[in-house]
UniProtKB/TrEMBL annotation:
This is Glucosidase II subunit alpha. CDD domains: GH31_GANC_GANAB_alpha, GH31_N. InterPro entries: Gal_mutarotase_sf_dom (IPR011013), GH (IPR017853), Glyco_hydro_31_C (IPR048395), Glyco_hydro_31_N_dom (IPR025887), Glyco_hydro_31_TIM (IPR000322), Glyco_hydro_b (IPR013780). Residues 335-673 form the Glycoside hydrolase family 31 TIM barrel domain. Belongs to the glycosyl hydrolase 31 family. It comes from Arctia plantaginis (Wood tiger moth). Pathway: Glycan metabolism; N-glycan metabolism.
Length: 905
């Protein structure tokens, strides 16, 4: 029995169990019934041309049901070799009846080409190689692609299970439409779905395709629904589910102890993904053992999209971090965010008026709590008309914002893409008069229902419409805003309360550039083609407008709910409308880890839960966990009980204050990691397997994670516990992990039980690392800019440690003009060196080093001396013998200059 048969038989076991998903009964069910014993797709070897980094050729489908083989359809194949061990396959109809949509915004520019060489053309197989020596073997009949890494291992196989399918566009009489409850989808273009299967030999697990509330390691789908990628506004979403949420990033990574690989399915239409892990207990083990001999490992996946072309990138790794970097090289890294955005955000739907905002602002100072941002939800507007202020509740927005900025704080306000259909509202009048709205299936302005009531939606695919929207952010068009007012794009899936599945009908019409001879359905794109990309169009337009208002001087901050590939280039993301329950706290970890692996490191969840009310223990644990997540914002529903930290009892308030202080102490560490992300593309928060790819125990761990490669965090996400299981990786390399509170060193030993109290969650610093901290926590991060650093040095078994530090002004783009500091800090027994990695860059910071904590020191030095410029200073040291900690007190080293400390013994 072959793998193909197991794959197909397993799929027969799967059927959609979600009664509300009418779309499944269309293209997904149709594609699943496509189960040929042999692929109908054949490469015409006589048409192969290799030029530069591209192979082009003709692919045909053949009808083998007749005695005489008949060619049915012709397709154009393009295989490209790209830099950094990446390949791209594009497959489209050679002469389609209508053009097919190609996603526009996911890629960060044109991918960089590599060389491609044809090595052999023998026995119906082509063997090609890129410059580095990665190979692609293409079997002509039936068509199959095998990708081979430098070690000679086949890491990705395409169409091994014969699930390649491109439904050709046809001109036929008949009704293509489909019904979903009371909604009718006209489907004027007919069926145009695509499908492709991918096999990952030697893989233990696959990851990615966020956003779901499932485990980090994707599970076999034969016993339930496939994973669905379709951006939706999901009210009180379910846990442990593969169903669609607000985000849809079609990237998948495969990993085993031998190698890693990945694929990016570049498609913005609704997509379903099946997974079969042959090591899973849900797959019939006897069949697997029959095929594999009980030894080989493999994971299969199948991507099915409702429309568009086949366009897939293949990443050949070799390690997890290689694959993650290869993906961000294609879709882009997150830009360096303004520093305040990494601090604490306080939000609610809604702070009711300016007096309420002033009271909350003062409350943080009264109770000695740091905060950087206060947020306003939809009620600040004049009747839910965006780019306006309620004249009664928010009559003086400039003064309100000035009260915040006086304390170093900012404001974020919400702007959603639905526009209220009200006569006299300038945005609606302009969009109506100038034709800027998305059209319905009959070509009229589409009307849906959202927060304002009757609403229409700007067609961001039209460059003119998009520019109009961007210009609404200009100061002259939005009085009351300033450089300290930033934005939140919510409801941008788009959310339509009376639409199918609370979103826009698929047969709505979007702008398409005019082309000669294209009429009717060929003259516009349908919403089905661009749906998962719509939110990306929204935040791109917002980003452009916010940049323009200050002539590109200041870095924007935007929060988005809808997510697609490339979102990270414009916005941070949160996990949507969660609930004040323990399960939602727990799932925030794998959800953000999955998004980070898909390029979106700037992720968090609503602290405390959006719906319901968190009791003291849950609220405490949520603050403690969120203090170690990239985006930290408390937010709650308008009908929930108020929950600012000081509204809890005194002991809980003290615990929340401690969590916030821990967050602020590490802001420069977070900031450095985000800067390094712009350089290397690696996630800021990482699953353990990414840094310890040979430890099989880490492959499915998703209740703890790493911040960079230096801190390990295990949030407490269960009620009433006095201990938790923690896994400390790195035993094979004798890695040490130091408790960040006690500096007690623990050797890597796999799982162990860690005692916890309500005041503590397990956090460890890796031996061999240096983490910069600022212990003088003030009311906002802006007021800490010139405060001194504490450097925490955690020694490895060789008595060495290394770290980095990034410093700039925190808000402008001047860092791109070499106005920053990017420094390396090295510890050896002979001393500590602070040196600039980028010696052409400088920044006049007034910060300095007030303390150096060296943990794990066995033989302390007798004397220490600071050398900076031509000045030498003797330093004082204190040894804490109980935990082998040496403290160098007030060295006074200035961070604007290189320095070194020498030890003598």
């Amino acid at each position: 029995m072959t793998f193909q048969v197991i794959f197909l038989e397993a799929l027969k076991l799967t059927f959609c169990q979600h009664e509300d998903v009418g779309a499944f009964c269309g293209f997904c069910k149709r594609l699943r019934s496509f189960k040929p014993e042999k692929s109908q797709y054949t490469l015409n070897l006589d048409t192969v041309i290799v030029h530069g980094n591209v192979l082009s050729a003709e692919v045909t489908t053949v009808d083998t049901t007749e005695e005489k083989r008949t060619t049915l359809w012709h397709y154009a194949l393009k295989l490209s070799a790209l830099k950094d061990a990446t390949f791209r396959i594009e497959l489209d109809e050679a002469d389609p009846l209508y053009p097919r949509y190609r996603s526009q915004l996911a890629l960060n520019g044109e991918p960089k080409p590599d060389g491609l060489k044809l090595i052999s053309n023998e026995n119906g197989k082509l063997t090609l190689s890129n410059i580095q020596g990665h190979k692609v073997i293409i079997t002509a009949e039936p068509l199959k692609f095998e990708f081979v890494n430098l070690a000679g291992d086949t890491v990705v196989v395409i169409n091994d299970n014969h699930q390649l399918l491109i439904e050709p566009l046809r001109e036929e009489e008949g009704t293509w439409g489909e019904n979903f409850k009371s909604h009718h989808d006209s489907k004027k273009r007919g069926n145009e779905a695509v499908s492709m299967d991918f096999s990952f030999p030697e893989a233990d697990q696959v990851y990615g395709i966020p956003e779901h509330t499932d485990k980090l390691a994707l599970r076999t789908t034969t016993s339930g629904d496939p994973y669905r990628l379709y951006n939706l506004d999901v009210f009180e979403y379910e846990l442990d589910s593969r169903m669609a949420l607000y985000g849809a990033v079609p990237v998948m990574y495969a990993h085993g102890a031998k190698h890693s690989a990945g694929i990016f399915w570049h498609n913005s239409a609704e997509t379903w993904v099946d997974v079969i892990n042959y090591a899973d207990s849900t797959v019939v083990s006897s069949l697997v053992n029959l095929v594999t001999g009980g030894q080989k490992k493999r994971v299969d996946a199948r991507f099915m999209s409702e429309a568009n072309v086949i366009d897939v990138f293949v990443f050949l790794g070799d390690k997890p971090n290689d694959v993650l970097r290869q993906y961000t090289a294609i879709t882009g890294t997150a830009p360096l965010p303004p520093k305040f955005s990494l601090a604490y955000h306080q939000c609610r739907w809604n702070y009711v008026d300016e007096a309420d905002v002033r009271s909350v602002n003062e409350g943080f100072d009264t109770h000695d709590l740091p905060a950087d941002v206060l947020w306003l939800d939809i009620e600040y507007t004049n009747g839910k008309k965006y780019f306006t202020w309620d004249p009664v509740k928010f009559p003086t927005p400039h003064d309100m914002v000035a009260n915040l900025t006086a304390k170093g704080r900012k404001m974020v306000i919400i702007i959603d893409p639905h526009i209220k259909r009200e006569a006299g509202y300038f945005v609606h009048e302009d969009c109506t008069d100038k034709g800027y709205y998305v059209k319905d299936k009959d070509g009229k302005d589409y009307e849906g229902w959202c927060w304002p009531g009757s609403s229409s939606y700007i067609d961001f695919l039209d460059p003119v419409s998009s520019q109009y929207y961007s210009d609404r952010y200009l100061y002259e068009n939005f009085p009351g805003t300033s450089k300290d007012v930033h934005f939140w794009n919510d409801m941008n899936e788009p959310s339509v309360f009376n639409g199918p599945e609370i979103t826009m009908p698929k047969d709505c019409q979007h702008y398409k550039p005019p082309q000669d001879g294209h009429e009717g359905v060929s003259s516009y794109w349908e919403h089905r083609h661009i749906h998962n990309e719509y939110g990306l169009f929204v935040i791109r337009a917002s980003h452009s407008g916010i940049l323009k208002r200050d002539e590109g001087k200041y870095r924007p901050f935007i929060l988005t709910r809808a997510v697609f590939a490339g979102t990270q280039r414009y916005a941070a993301v949160w996990t949507g409308d969660n609930v004040a329950e323990w399960g939602f706290l727990a799932v925030s970890v794998p959800m953000c880890l999955s998004l980070a692996a898909a390029g979106v490191s700037f992720c968090g969840s609503d602290v405390g839960g959006f719906f319901k009310y968190p009791e003291a223990e849950l609220m405490t644990r949520w603050y403690q966990a969120a203090a170690y997540q990239a985006f930290m914002r408390a937010h709650s529903h308008i009908e929930t009980k108020r929950r600012e930290p000081w509204l809890y009892d005194a002991s809980t308030l003290a615990l929340l204050r401690d969590a916030l202080r821990k967050r602020y102490a590490l802001l420069d560490f977070w900031y450095t990691l985000f800067y390094e992300h712009t350089l290397d593309g690696l996630p800021v928060t990482r699953a353990l397997y990414q840094e310890y790819p040979n430890e099989e125990e880490t492959f499915t761990i998703d209740d703890q994670y790493l911040i960079g490669d230096k801190l390990l965090v295990r949030p407490v996400v269960e009620p009433g516990v006095t201990s938790v299981k923690v896994y400390l990786p790195g035993a094979a390399n004798n890695v040490l992990w130091y408790d960040v509170d006690s500096y007690v060193a623990l050797p890597a030993r796999g799982y162990f039980t860690q005692d916890v109290t309500i005041a503590k969650i397990p956090v460890y610093q890796r031996g061999g690392s240096i983490v910069p901290r600022k212990e003088r926590v003030r009311r906002s991060s802006a007021l800490m800019a010139d405060d001194p650093y504490t450097l925490v040095v955690a020694l490895d078994t060789d008595n060495k440690a290394h770290g980095t530090l990034y410093i700039d002004d925190g808000e402008t783009y001047e860092y791109l003009n070499n106005k920053h500091i990017y420094a390396r800090i090295d510890y050896e027994p002979s001393g500590i060196t602070y040196s600039f990695i980028d010696d052409k860059a400088h920044y006049p910071t007034r910060s300095w080093v007030e303390r150096i904590v060296i943990a794990g020191i066995k033989t302390p030095p007798k004397t220490a001396k600071l050398i900076q410029g031509d000045k030498q200073t003797a330093l004082q040291m204190t040894l804490h013998k109980g935990n082998d900690v040496l403290v160098v007190r007030k060295p006074g080293a200035k961070m604007a200059q290189e320095w070194r400390i020498t030890f003598s013994y």
